[in-house]
Specification:
Length: 112
């Protein structure tokens, strides 16, 4: 008797549907998650557990990022134009100037 195939969950669809609780739970259980080049414009990501995520070249324009801890997240090439960032923690490798340029002008953030 064959065992059933494990359920494949599309982590991106969980984010798009706003199901951050399930997304965070599956990540804690070890689910693979490739979010490079992802488009999360305008999304409410306040409850996102971003530790260890690679968001290289992601679009977070107009997203609600308030209170998110990105200190252990790869944000190289990310654009946060017009995002809400009150209380957001960014990686120490990103200068305040780099973050501000992305927030105000949509430039992609670069590590120094």
């Amino acid at each position: 008797m064959n065992s059933p195939e494990p359920e494949v969950v599309d982590m991106y669809k969980l984010l798009l549907s706003g199901n951050l609780a399930k997304f965070n739970e599956l990540r804690r259980q070890g689910a693979e998650c490739d979010l490079c080049n992802i488009d999360l414009r305008g999304m409410d990501l306040r409850q996102l557990d971003a530790r260890g995520l690679d968001l290289t070249n992601a679009f977070l324009r107009q997203a609600d990022l308030r209170g998110v801890d990105f200190s252990q997240t790869i944000l190289n090439g990310v654009s946060i134009s017009g995002a809400k960032i009150s209380g957001t923690m960014f990686p120490v490798e990103l200068s305040a100037e780099e973050i501000n340029l992305s927030l105000l002008h949509g430039t992609r953030m670069r590590y120094r």
